[in-house]
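Lab manual, section 2.4: Encoding a predicted structure.

Procedure: take the sequence of the chain (175 residues), apply the prediction step described in section 2.3, and record the output as structure tokens. A sample record is shown.
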Amino acid sequence: MNITVTFKHIDSSDAIRQYAESKVSKLEKYLHNILEAHITLSMERVDHKESGVAQIKLLAKNLTINAEEKSSDIYSAIDLLMEKVESQIKKHKEKTRRKEHSEESSEGLGAEGYEDFGLEIKEDYEKQPLTVNEAVGKLRKRNGDFIVFKDKESALVSFLIKDGNGNFSLIAPDF
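Recorded output:
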């Protein structure tokens, strides 16, 4: 990992540079593919008070993080910045983990897998919420056997089924 530290409106100090570099290098335990990190340390004066500002641009294989933190001194600004970056990395990893998990589970029962059971995939559902009476009307117009819809009143997914005698049955979860 290539770490660069830039100082603005503050005297360059080896102690601060080493502190920032050591903090950033610890990020590798959370994210192994960090390519480079550019840290900018500066001092700002707001309302006659000086505050330390730490900024980072972290580049990894599939991730770019930009973050900034301010505090009364530069060391605490660096600490706050690292906490923020760690949080963003953890969020990214969790998002990636969820995405990979959902892809794995959808691969297990793809369209091809259903053919083994003789099942046909139908996307016959209403995208807009309906009342039960509206669902009955739509099912009659379609001349189909069933309709899947979101009930306007309960906000739950419901199934309306027409049997061979023309009678309707409603399957609605109660949870």
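Check your result against the sample. The longest helix spans residues 74-108.
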